[in-house]
Amino acid sequence: MTVFSRRTTGLLFSLLCAPLTVLAAETQPTHEYTLDNGLKIVVREDHRAPVVVSQLWYKIGSSYETPGSTGLSHALEHMMFKGSSKMGPGEASLVLRDLGATENAFTTDDYTAYYQVMAKDRLPVALELEADRMATLRLPADEFSREIEVIKEERRLRTDDQPMALAYERFSAAAYPASGYRTPTIGWPADLKRMNIDDLRHWYQSWYAPNNATLVVVGDVTGEDVRQMAQQYFGQIPKRDLPPAKRPLELQASGERRLILPVRTQIPSLMMGFNVPGFASAENQRDVHALRLISALLDGGYSARLSTQLEREQELVTGASASYESYTRGDSLFMLSAMPNLQKGKTLADVEAGLWAQLDALKQTPPSTAELERVRAQVIASLVYERDSITAQASNIGQLESIGVSWHEMDNELADLQSVTPTDLQRVARTYFTRDRLTVAHVIPETQTQQEARP
């Protein structure tokens, strides 16, 4: 047994035995401020090393985009490195590199974030650079002409030339009939072709404002020091009137949707997705934590139900997974996927029936207390290890704030998971795993006819 395995085993046991008050007491001092212009600041102290992570989160992503204008949020993220009033294209990155800092950015459905990791005495430089591009970004047409070609190539490499990524993109478009989550973050190809620099200027002017952003700083700092720095660099940036941003909600019962997706693959696979609430859209957040535990129950390692029963005992699949993204500002998906065991003559219809049997078993009989405690310990152990990183701590805070949920929920998370019961899992399975919430995709080789693929 490796050192990691021994530590994991010990931690699982200790988490099962530790009182919740002890777990809650281990959170670091955290401070929240809001500047007069609406910029929210969350600072979490972590003094183990003289390092700090700074993340600036904007509440804008592909779920905010409208048909015909997809990909704007991601394209603007690329252009944020192309110069401002103080820096030319790429110069800010060179400054940070010379200071020993690392930086990056990412765009998702619900938010766009920019981050730097550096020695704590470099933080003022990072904040000054972020404030400069929030207030005075330059969007040169010639830089855009080059960058949009980079984005098109990125889409080709990551989606168009990746059969399963392309299949999932088509699946998502069907699984989210009523919300912007049907939109790929990188944008549809036709929209990338007609995007222009004026589109990006309008997007930037609409959403990149202090009252639509959260600054998260975690590391060897104090709250008051960061507040003063934020006031110095961001305080003079005026707030803006923001466009309306309604929460992306799905149809409660839109009816079962089925797709057959021929792609360049030799192995067929199955995707099943149920429309379920996310953290911000759930009427009862207990349901969200129950869905997280169901995901781990089905696909939480070697002893999970899918690998144990469908893969090893029944030899029905060669691989199966369950996943649930809870940190969304709107409704989410509970996903199941699997590949049939072709050597045993299994088909996609067999796999679909097998997955339904697993869900029906959970509806009929709640898991035992012992099974739930094992799964819960795995989930909590993963969270505890993740939060050992200052970057992960900052990301959790930024995600929650960007979807409209208080960062305080991060510190309540362990207690909330501990409160979920076996009957909660059964109730949630009965509520959400229904055919009128379901989208199914049979992903088949292009050489296989659709008639052959029909169940």
TrEMBL record:
The keyword Protease applies. Keywords: Hydrolase, Metalloprotease, Protease, Signal, Zinc. Residues 1-24 form the signal peptide. It comes from the Bacteria. GO terms for biological process: proteolysis. GO terms for molecular function: metal ion binding; metallopeptidase activity. Coiled coil: none annotated. Residues 41-179 form the Peptidase M16 N-terminal domain. Residues 195-378 form the Peptidase M16 C-terminal domain. Belongs to the peptidase M16 family. This is Zinc protease. It comes from Pseudomonas lutea.
